[in-house]
Design a protein that fits this description.
The protein is α/β, with parallel strands linked by helices. The chain contains 10 helices and 29 strands. It is globular. Homotetramer.
Length: 420
Amino acid sequence: MSPLANAPLARHAMAYVLAGGRGTRLMELTERRVKPAVFFGAKSRIIDFALSNAINSGIRRIGVATQYKAHSLIRHMQRGWNFLRPERNESFDILPASQRVEGAGWYSGTADAVYQNLDIIEAYAPRYMVILAGDHVYKMDYEVMLQQHEASGADVTVGCIEVPRMEATGFGVMHTDADGRISAFLEKPKDPPAMPGRPDVALASMGIYIFDTRLLAQELRRDAADPESEHDFGKNIVPHLVAQGKAMAHRFTESCVTSGAEAEHYWRDVGTVDAYWQANIDLTDVVPALDLYDHNWPIWTYSEITPPAKFVFNDDGRRGSAVDSLVSGGCIVSGSSVNRSVLCTNVRVHSFCQLSGAVLLPGAAVNRNSRLRNVVVDSGVELPPGLVVGEDAAEDARRFRRTEKGVTLITQAMLDALPT
């Protein structure tokens, strides 16, 4: 008998992370980087959550498909995710669109991003494929979902979550029977159907799919030969299996990982500037909805070597302090007050500044006498002395990107375009 015969199913699985989407709703935050590479939670990147879930679930073969402005993402993965070892039957493959299939160019859809690398997948011969979106923030044990997939005999198992109905327009929405079998699947409907008996709630796809590898290969080859297909999991592969095979829903509540203190099953699509800002600021709560301090389910990432965070000056009107905030290594808060904010690595806040609701990405610098409220400052941006943001909505909108909910995004290009 094989030594892996009684091992967890995750040991027979390969995780395949789709990380090529631009994420246009994050506006200028994705002008230089793809959405999964955007910084989150003071020291991580968004993609670290899907990758960490795979590692913590016991999956030791991982592929990541990249496409749009991938350099920042590829560099991050090379630095932080290079610990998997082939001699232990582990692998980590970065798979940019590279015309591996005759006549192919860029990935034309999520399914095509897997199809173009089928030769690599089949060489590893995993029993299961766990297809993951690389741009969501959550903690989940994929082993639980794998166990359900195996027990149900499904052709595809789809991870799903309940969302307010009119927020489901950006998701795949499904109907299920009492046993969890999917009877209908609509990708990004303009008028999402409600769950039976719950008119304000829809059952939405998380962009997580589990297939037996052999069946997936068959479906991808069938789909690739269809000139009418958009070669997309949500638009083509899953609806076909709903109609012609057996598609099952897996509820996120059954596999969400918590440390016990959280009040909800946490999953976020941080796809807009408002959602991105809010998810970061929520981490400053005394008991945040997402526990990053759970040592039993760590969020792996590339940890840059930095000195400790530092707070200097203790004079009236010039006191370096941070309250209800996340402050990373390499940060220096010099004679300024920081409240309910997130400071990524190597941020500098100079004297006589007041920050509230500020998300400052790595290497940002806030010069003297500035007041910032409800802002996201891109990496490497140096704010001029005396800058005031968050007190005059019209002035903020004139100079920077201001959202409907009052969050201001600041990039270096916006600052450079200001009249001198």
